[in-house]
Amino acid sequence: MSAHIIPLPPISRPTLHEHVAQQLREMLVEGHIAPGAKLNERELSEVLKVSRTPLREAIKMLAAEGLVELLPNRGAIAVELSESDVHHTFEVMAGLEAQSGELAAQRITEAELAEIKAMHYEMLAAFTRRDLPAYYRLNSAIHAAINAAAKNPVLSATYRQVNARLQALRFRSNQDGEKWSAAVKEHEAMVQALDQRDPAAMRAVLLSHLNHKRDVVMAQLRSRSQAGAQA
User: Fold this and answer.
1) Would you place residue 66 in the very low, low, confident or very high pLDDT band (cuts 50, 70, 90)?
2) What structural domains and CATH numbers belong to the chain?
3) Are the C-beta atoms of 227 and 123 separated by less than 8 Å?
């Protein structure tokens, strides 16, 4: 008698417009699309090798995330945050990161910790090569993994929404060599605090990490603003 086989649910795969949205996010984060720039659909269709329909769906996704702004009869532009926007967003982000770290130190599994350690060593290798795009992708993945280890879906949803606004600024903040080295040391302290299951230490290092990141970003924004005024 043949066994009754229960069909498995189909494996979820990213749709084309979700894949395009991720490519656009990377272009925004890495500065290939500058803050305030218009998203040229014709050029982007050629670069990404997709038709206008999935591209427009992807742009709508980014608009919902606050990364681009849809303007009537003008298309979409990359969002450019003011100094005040950045300061307020970092204020919220620091609290979210700190709570993520505190809960993760209490709830992280051995498998989750092993994965974070593996990504940390890959990130150190990228830092040694001064490969900023690879470093930043691993850095973001580590922060996301810490947030996931907190095992609080409400916190995770809020974290993703707020963090999306800061990605491009956090990427550029690592272009200062001295500050980049300091950020790496803070990541080493995070791994140690997680390994020791120390919620207070994890909260403290993430608060410090985000406040240092905020200070670097604000200084860069002011410098660019002054340069623009003098031009």
Assistant:
1) confident
2) 16-78 (1.10.10.10), 83-230 (1.20.120.530)
3) no
